[in-house]
Amino acid sequence: MGKPTGFMELPRTERHYASPSDRIQHYREFTLSPSDAEVAEQGSRCMDCGIPFCHNGCPVNNIIPDWNDGVYRGDWQQALDILHSTNNFPEFTGRICPAPCEAACTLNLQDQPVTIKSIECAIIDKGWAMGWVKPQIPEKRTGKRVAVIGSGPSGLACAQQLARAGHEVVVYEKNDRIGGLLRYGIPDFKMEKTHIDRRIAQMQAEGVRFRPNSHIGTDIPTQKLLAEYDAIVLAVGSEKPRDLEVPGRNEYEGVYYAMDFLRQQNKRNAGDTIAEDVAITATDKRVIVIGGGDTGSDCIGTSIRQGAASVVQLEILPQPPEKENKLLTWPMWPNKLRTTSSHDEGIKQRYWSVNTKSITGKDGKITHLNAVEVEWKQEGGQWKMSEKPDSAFTLEADIVFLAMGFVHPVHEGLLKELGVELDRNNIKADDKQYRTSVDKVFAAGDARRGQSLVVWAIREGRQAAKAVDEFLMGSSELPR
Amino acid sequence: MSQSTLPPRQGLYNPRNEHDACGVGFIVHIKGQKSHETVRQGLELLKNLTHRGAVGADIYAGDGAGILIQMPDAFLRAECDKLSISLPEQGNYAAGMVFLPRDAANRATCENLLTEIIKREKAVLLGWRDVPVDNRTLGESVKLVEPFIRQIFIGRGEDCKDQDAFERKLFVIRKQVENAVRDLKLDHGHAFYIPSLSSRTIVYKGMLLADQVGAFYADLSDERMVSALALVHQRFSTNTFPTWDLAHPFRLIAHNGEINTLRGNVNGMAARRHSIASKILGDDMHKLWPLIHEAQSDSACFDNALELLVAGGYSLAHAMMLLIPEAWAGNELMDEKLRAFYEYNAALMEPWDGPAAIAFTDGRQIGATLDRNGLRPARYLVTDDDFVIMASEMGVLEVPQHKIIKKWRLQPGKMLLIDTEQGRIIDDAELKANLSSCHPYSEWLSKTQILLSELPAEISAMAPDAHTLLDRQQAFGYTREDIEFILKPIALTGQEPISSMGIDTALAVLSERSRLLYDYFKQGFAQVTNPAIDPIREELVMSLVSLIGPRPNLLGLDEGGTHMRLEVEQPILTNQDLEKIRRIETRTGGVFKTKTLTLCYPSDLGASGMEAALDKLCLAAKQAVEEGNNILALSDRDLDVAHIAIPALLATSAVHHYLTREGLRTEVGLVVETGEAREVHHFALLAAYGAEAINPYLAFDTLSGLCENIDDLSEYEAHKRYIKAISKGLLKVMSKMGISTYQSYCGAQIFNALGLSEPFLDRYFTGTISTVEGVGLKEISEETTRRHRIAFGNAPLFREALDIGGEYAYRLRGEAHTWTPATISTLQHATRSNSYEKYAEFCRLIDEQNEALLTLRGLMSFKEDAAPVPLDEVESAAEIVKRFATGAMSFGSISYEAHTNLAIAMNRIGGKSNTGEGGELPERFKTLPNGDSMRSAIKQVASGRFGVTTEYLVNADDIQIKVSQGAKPGEGGQLPGHKVDAVIARVRHSTRGVGLISPPPHHDIYSIEDLAQLIHDLKNVNPEARISVKLVSEVGVGTVAAGVSKAHADHVTISGYDGGTGASPMTSIKHAGLPWEIGLAETHQTLVLNKLRGRIAVQVDGGLRTGRDVVIGALLGADEFGFATAPLIVSGCLMMRKCHLNTCPVGVATQDPELRKRFTGQPEHVVNYFFMVAEDVRQWMAKLGFRTVNEMIGRSDKLDMQRSLNHWKTQGLDYSRVFYKPEVDGTTAVYNRESQDHGLDQALDHTLIAAAQPALQNAQPVVIDTPIRNINRTFGAMLSGEVAKRYGHKGLPDDTISIRVKGTAGQSFGSFLAQGISIELEGEGNDYVGKGMSGGRIAIYQPKDCPVTPADNIIVGNTVLYGAISGECYFSGVAGERFAVRNSGAVAVVEGVGDHGCEYMTGGVVVVLGQTGRNFAAGMSGGVAYVLDEEGDFEKRCNMAMVDLEPILEEDDILEAIAHQGGDLETHGRVHIMSDMTRNDAQRLKHFIEKHKRYTNSARAQHILDNWQDYLPRFVKVMPVDYREALKQIQAEQAIASC
Question: Hey, which of A324, B644, B912, B1452 would disulfide with B885, CB 3.0 to 4.6 Å?
């Protein structure tokens, strides 16, 4: 398989982006698609390892060497079949996954990894373009009914698998549109929402029914579901954001959760209108983003597109090294400095080892953020933070976005009503059976494992589907 | 045959696995003149073969020896007179030697039985005589089982019309008595045995040393004891158990060799029981069964078969030719009539295949024959007073040279026969010409032979639609890998695909997945006791011809030309072929009739329906035969949603054994039509369990499907390539075991079962042994039904696609592997950061196999029943690491960086690294300035002998003879030219860019006594080094190891089947050999039972990774531990499995300079690893209560089996045989604590070294004179070791040590000779002259008073100059087979050579001034040969696959000489004439012939030189094609560089 000497002959070439000056003028995707020949060439760099570390580095265990070989040989359709055999939604992961597979790629040890994510994306994009992605309608129906609560990547993957196993699946979503975090958390410039719509259409054809605007535990009592369905899957995500508990946080207007900000922009892009009084905008404002992860980056990119006066980003952890010690980290996901496309679009400064101490303001509106530099030391295996003496400083701010992660699923309503047992504030269930403490109720995705990547959510959805199928039928032919 | 005195089967020890090999010889007076002197000479000859035998733990206990002579009538008559027994006239009475139980009651029973049967057979019992014996010199162990020895005298009854009839009657009597005694199951019945019972011959033998025979049997020293012939034999067995009966000679033969196909041959004889009929034997025929008793040696079985043939009316010679035919198929040089004779007879009897020198006699004729490949030595001489002396080597009897009129050797497949009644020698040509023209064989053949290929075409099945194809593929367990890794590459290249590294997936019985039945069988292979064959280079002895259908009556001597036979060229049938067989009835006028039996049964019966379906199938088969069908086609084509197929292998074997048991098997042919078989292993198994031909229709259908997507590949071409690849693969599998014909492989069952239960095997695979028990029909049928469900079920994953497989490359949904991303990265991180915590995590990942059971040891647990000891009282880690070694990985397969990294690390910790095959750069022998050393402590000696110089050997702590390699036991290797860069060429003493071939066998180890010789050779070169032998685990390896210990190895390595490789065929990586747990346990148990354990260190290797592995290894009996893949991974290896492609991205297994830069390994990491493993071991030891490793060795009682696991296949496993601990007394060593006695103190070299002191110390020239005899072996090697130690490979100036020797030299004369030593021998050499020669000069010429012309004189034996590196040899006479095999650089002139000359040669010059044998230059990739081709037919005898033949041009050479040298060849000629092998040929040739004349005074050389202009055009130059290209390339580069 593959070209044995490909990696020795060809360099890695990534997908190109439209230039920042162009791309910040709009909210659309700005990644330029490579030609088939370029993709094939990159695919030929795959060494078809005896042990493909990528295959294990990938949470859905994409069989990467096999589809790399497919595009190298020009057999895109076979590549797509193999890709779909492990991943329900490669167009999502092909766009927004941080690609732990590439970190695990054997070539990443001493060279540049194969552009696995780009190839994945190219395969599925071609699949849609050529009309190869078709509904897979089950031959037999089981007559079993399953409710999936939550329509994020986990819920969708779970629902699709269950429907293909012949079950009658209904997906409940509290928001007005299907997609969960995919729909409202991810900016369009990272992933346009038509990708989700296409999948929903496919799933509907496969028999999945969607119920948006249906907040279980609030609009609809859980008992009703328990009575009507043979199994229920909780894929409600981990939506409780981590708050900034400092003086002034609730005193001054202008401190927002990142998700509230991003959701509004996504709705606007979808054609909705946001009422003036609740609108959160960064236009002409001095923006501070607290949190150095991907959500932080999304806030930066969105702020810049809205025309912010300036954007800075704070991170409590120290700046990671530019290059990791690969001999000790590979094939794991390494801690290293990552610069996202949003950073390239005009961020003013990135602060590291900074802890916010307080918010101050005027006329009920925020004006400043007061912070201090911190130091990290390891004590008995635990990292301990201490403030650096005399390092306090103040930043001017008109608006602050909290992108500090999520602590756990929302407990109020659904989870409380069901009375599911919790484990470190997440829903308690193992990753074999995915069963909660409540009979016939399953949990998958962030709600179970805590906040994580889309690709983990898909994995959990698929695996939970198999568990549910086994529960309902005694055995399951669904792949894990 | 008696019930043997071998111990019963216990633990993994099974007496069935015993082997032997030996020295054999005879002396005969051609005219039949009887004398006592001949008997005395026979005993003398026997004594001089002593070194070919062995002694066990008890030095007074030999392995057995004996003598067969003509009936000494006068002596017996006189002795009988004393006992008042009156003997009739000679010829009318028989004397029998009878071993009887010492127990009086038992003895009486046996004697009474004899009396009774003699009476019943109307013969006359004349009386008994107690044979006087003197057992004073016998070892204690032997005395314990010494039988009571008597002679019985029987008179010819009236119904026997002549002496021949009487002989037949005696045979019938003996068989009946033997079987009757055995059936009685007497307590001491095992002692009963009849060595001989004949009116013509008598055998005196026993569990004796060669020199004890005469002393033990007083009869033999009696002057009245006269005979015209004496056949003697000295045995070397792989055990130390006293077995009086297994000594040779048997009644008709004495054998030196091994019958590889024994299982199949014995089954074949049994299968004939009901179809055999003999006019001569008549009803007596039925009294002979069981003809061949199980559990006796191969030689004894052979003797039984030969007796039957002779009794049935064949002449002795004819019978021998039936059993051991020459390689006739495809031999263009063979006479047409003779070929017809062999081809005709091939249908009567499948060859008894294996290396063999068999001497045979019926008392009137005596002779000997050699196997088709000439793998045993046999030389003979004829004297002017009518004696012929034949023996395994020359010099066994002192014969004045002037009396000798001929000295020759037995050639492959040839026979020597002396008829004492006719009073003459009948040579091979005459003998065979007579036999082959006795009957019109070719006419019979043309009348009866139907070639399948010549039958008219039929309409055959077509490939199905894609959907049906997928369903069938799934039902037969196809995976994506079967397509991608096996079928597609085969379709594209016609070659079986290559892979690298070892197998680390779950054993079939431990796998969660549904595995094919084939996966439960592992291929057997030859190691030590017989050689593997090179099926490519020695293709001439191989044959895939298969005969389908009923066999003629073996004893139907008068039925010639009446029995029709169907022949195929090879056993893989196309659909078309199968169709022809199916419709054969109408095409052959009803002679053949085929019935198809389906293997399918209704799927609604499920798994539990299979047993009944099998029973039904067997009955249907029987019924079909009884109805007159003579070909059965077993077919699974009916498989569909409603029908499950019985696994084809199971069905084939079940039917084969059922019909064998019913005595019907030889009346019918078995053909298998199956969708299951696709890879070589599958076909080999089907063949080994009875299929005469196989149609793999689904493989063909799959290939047809592939063709649609591959441009320019026609269906026809793809199918053709597939058949070719599978055929080649089959040859390889057969040749691994040393089997050369499909006919004898068919039914030979050369497989080890792994994970199958004994009841299952007994029932369906009768005769195959189970070691650890395992699954039975229930699980096998469950696996089959699971596949069927996948095929016809609804799982989304399998709707459109095959299962992923995951055998060859790791896949999450595929088969489980030990090496995973997690285990590899954790190990690397742990060792790079020296974190024990991380290491512990690694161990947890490996050891905790709750979910994925992978290895046998995964299921083991420890009995922690003893009090633990405090950790600080346990032996230190620094001591434990000294027991660790890294595995043999050659520089060439891995990079310089990786190779030295391991060496430095092991030297730092006092462990040992291993050079692997391929030598070591001499610079590495010196310590580095920082104190590190890159010298590998273990120097490996493999079959290719690359880089094995004397200097290399003296720089070793251990010298390891690699007999087998875990990843590819029984196979050779190939280093492609593109991997041979300048450095590798230098270390391997070869040419850059020229590919190198390692032969499958060591050409100096064809048997256990050969191995003893090689051990002796190496020990001589470097007496301080331990000599180690590396074996691979298989059933019977323990017995081989016992033999190895008796052959004086200091160390033995037992490798698991899962060892790694740089490049091997996938079939071998996956399917050959067993896990080390089984082989190690068997080895330890067998060594302990034989009391041989103490004198040998046992090392285990193959997938050791953690301290737990080490502890299990020690408990099962290992002293030392080898690790290969793990330290390689620590050095950066990622199990890419790309070693064979040279694209290793981490610089480990590549020679690419860019990729090598990526190597990141550090010696520290490896040191960290081994210390962490040792620490881990210590913690286990503390827990188990052991303070030292020695205490732990062999304590298998501390091991237990985890039974609680919830796994659907492992419930039937039973490790009790593995855990078996032999009962021994307190004095028997159970770990290595003694040393071997190598007998070096008797070496002549001590004298040489003493005399050579001035040369050794000051390089002053010395001249030494010494006589020599055949018992002086390995002459010159120890002296050479001394030279190399002091002066390295470059040695001393020419002739500094000059040695003049007279006599017949023992084996390995001048082996490993160092530069500066020259030896002149007046006399003759035996085998292995100049082996491993590293410089110096050997000249051998016959004594001046010897009247034989050198062209008729074998001056040196077989395998001369094997692995020679440099130096010069001049032999004025003819050499035996395999002259200059694997020569890397020596120059030799010889006046004739046997078969396979210059095989695998890579350098040097060979000049042949006389006849050459067949297959010259096979696999020759370098060097040149000049052959005098007087008859102009050399091309026919030369293997032209890799060489060109060129004329020798003179003109430009002379110009060149004048221009550059001024003709002054003597002063700087050598440099010049060796500098450019592409030219200067005439000059070079003349130069060496002149030297030949100078050193040997050869008349032949003189004659040629005198007539140079006439002779020059008759020489041809043998020039390897690649070598010429590489030389031109190098010259071009040098020209550019010098511009």
Answer: B912
